[in-house]
Design a protein that fits this description.
Largest sheet: 7 strands, antiparallel
Cofactor: Zn(2+)
Shape: rod-shaped
Transmembrane segments: 102-128, 240-261
Strand order of the largest sheet: 4-3-2-1-7-6-5
Number of strands: 10
Helix content: 40-55%
Radius of gyration: 38 Å
Organism: Pontibacter ruber
Bound molecules: zinc ion
Number of helices: 15
Strand content: 15-25%
Family: Belongs to the peptidase M48 family.
InterPro entries: Mito/Outer_Membr_Metalloprot, Peptidase_M48
Low-confidence stretches: 93-98, 309-313
Distance between the termini: 110 Å
Structural class: alpha+beta
Order of helices and strands: EEEEEEEHHHHEEEHHHHHHHHHHH
Oligomer: single chain
């Protein structure tokens, strides 16, 4: 049986039409350039399989100048397999082809796995954070309202102090996209936190530590800063991003709000970045300045808490670099010099808040 193909002699790149015959101990090639006819014989041991693709079988032979043949006929490959079954050039190349295939697959598989892992570890929280930064305001407020209600179930609200605190807030100039609702809850916990959509929860334990109302104004400014800059919303979205992803995967978009609300307790443990804390500090300072209150208010509070037992205080505990924050605040205070004025309305509300 003769197969038609092209013969390459290794010296000239052009292929020469050839007839190929598979013999017992090798391949016989008869070629014809039109001007001259030639014949070569390839010993089996010198043959290398170069590549198989669907249409073409390519074989190489010998050292430099390396000859090769390309055969386009369909039956040629099967004929090779039958004739030289078990011979080195078929076997070795098949094995190596197989190895490359598996190795390639393994590499692709591992890369995909690594990409998927990277997506889950960094991508998902990042996307959740970005998404949360663009929640519509109404949605965020509604979310926060539900969240806030759910959280308050775990606390004992101090109604009298809550009224006084909101009176204090009413007399404070605040810049925010959200209406601000603050609540005082009973208990010794020295902490305060911001709930998405405009809610601030202040523990009585922290209120009792304060000695001047400027400290409260600074603290409120700080927490309102977290709300306004969406730190709490974004941090919640990051920490709950896997649940959010699941509810998205199951096509339950409204479920996202449910997931966040079901995890209201997460709010206690939210960690903000140092940048976020500094931004919130700055917001606190701006609020003090807007209201012509002594800008030292927040610094006093921090210094007091830092020397005491600060471990519960979100202000202090999220990041240990309280000294850096105080220094940064002091620097900003120096830049913006103004004369603090007294504010009778705020002082009256403060007196009410501190009443035994
Ligand atoms: Zn903070």
């Amino acid at each position: 049986m003769e197969y038609e193909g092209k013969y390459y002699n290794g010296r000239v790149s052009k292929g020469i039409p050839a007839f190929i015959v598979l013999e017992e101990n090798g391949i016989s090639i008869n070629y014809s350039t039109g001007e001259e006819n030639g014949h070569v014989f390839w010993e089996l041991e010198g043959i290398q399989q170069s590549e198989f693709n669907d249409a073409t079988t390519l074989l190489r032979y010998g050292k430099y100048p390396q000859q090769s043949i390309a055969v386009f006929e369909q039956g040629f490959r099967e004929a090779l397999q039958q004739k030289y079954k078990g011979s080195a050039f078929l076997k070795s190349n098949y094995t190596s082809f197989l190895n490359t295939g598996l190795l390639g697959l393994a590499v692709v598989g591992l890369s995909l796995f690594a990409l998927t892992m990277a997506f889950f570890i960094w991508g998902v929280p990042f996307l959740a954070d970005r998404a949360a930064a663009h929640f519509p305001r109404d949605f965020e407020r509604e979310l926060g309202t539900n969240l806030h209600e759910k959280m308050l179930m775990a606390y004992d609200v101090d109604s009298a102090r809550t009224v006084a605190l909101n009176k204090y807030l009413d007399n404070l100039q605040v810049t925010s996209d959200f209406p601000i609702d603050a609540v005082v809850v009973k208990g010794d916990e020295v902490s305060a936190y911001a709930v998405p959509g405009g809610f601030v929860v202040l523990h009585d334990g922290l209120l009792q530590k304060m000695e001047r109302h400027e400290e409260l104004a600074g603290l409120l400014g700080h927490e309102i800063g977290h709300v306004q800059l969406r730190h709490s919303t974004r941090a919640m979205a990051r920490s709950l991003s896997y649940y959010m992803l699941l509810s998205l995967l199951f096509g339950d978009v409204t479920g996202i709000a449910g997931v966040i609300i079901d995890n209201a307790s997460t709010l206690h443990n939210l960690e903000y970045s140092r940048e976020a804390e500094q931004e919130a500090d700055k917001a606190g300072l701006v609020l003090l300045q807007q209201n012509k209150l002594d800008p030292k208010g927040m610094v006093w509070l921090m210094e007091r808490l830092d020397s005491g037992e600060p471990e519960y205080m979100e202000f202090i505990s999220t990041h240990p670099r309280t000294q850096n924050r105080i220094e940064e605040l002091n620097r900003q205070i120096k830049e913006a010099k103004y004369k603090p004025a007294s504010n009778p309305a705020l002082e009256a509300a403060w007196e009410e808040l501190k009443k035994k």
